Amino acid sequence: MPKSPALLLKPVAGIAVKLFVPCLSALIVGGQMSLQAFADEAGSQVSNAPPASAPARGQSYREDVLLIMAARGADPEEIKQVIKEAKGQIVETNGEGELAYYVVKVEKGKLVEAEKKLSKDKRFSAVQRDYVFQIK
C-alpha cells in the first residue's frame, strides 16, 4: 500500500509549514462558503464585488504582497531587518508562536525579486504570494 505524503513528513515544524498554505486556503474558502450560507438563511445577498485590495483582473494574487512564516528559532529582529533589506514592510502579523506569519508589502514591481531573495533565506520556512480565491 502506498504511503500517504503526510506520513513522509518528518519534523513537526515541517508539517506545520507544509500544511500552512492548504490550511490557509481551506480557511478562506470555508469562510466564504459559510458567509454565503448565512446570507442565504437570512434572505440577504453577499456582494460579488471584489474588495478594494483585490488583485487586478486575470491576476490570482494581491500585487506586491507576500505571506511569510519565520523558521523555528529565528530572531524576530533579524527577520524584520531581512524583510527591510528586501524592500519590504511588515503590515500585519497573524497567528502566534511558531504558526505566526507576516503579511509583507514590498516595493511596487519588486515582488518577484523579494520573493526569490526571501525564499532562499534559511530564517524563513515559507514565503508565498498572497493568493486570492473567489467562489462564483
Give structural notes.
The chain is an alpha+beta fold and 136 residues long. It is 38% helix and 23% strand. It contains three helices and four strands, in the order αβαββαβ. A four-stranded antiparallel sheet has the order 2-3-1-4. The longest helix is centred in the first third of the chain and has 31 residues. It is globular. The N terminus is likely disordered.
Q: What's the arrangement of strands in the largest beta sheet?
A: 2-3-1-4
Percent helix among the residues? 25-40%
The best one-word shape is globular
Rg from Cα: 17 Å
Question: Which range does the strand content fall in?
Answer: 15-25%
The SSE string, one letter per element, is HEHEEHE
Total strands: the figure is 4
What would you call the structural class? Answer: alpha+beta
Kindly report how far apart the N and C termini lie. 38 Å
Poorly predicted spans? 1-10
Mean pLDDT level: 74
* Biggest β-sheet description: 4 strands, antiparallel
- The number of helical elements comes to 3
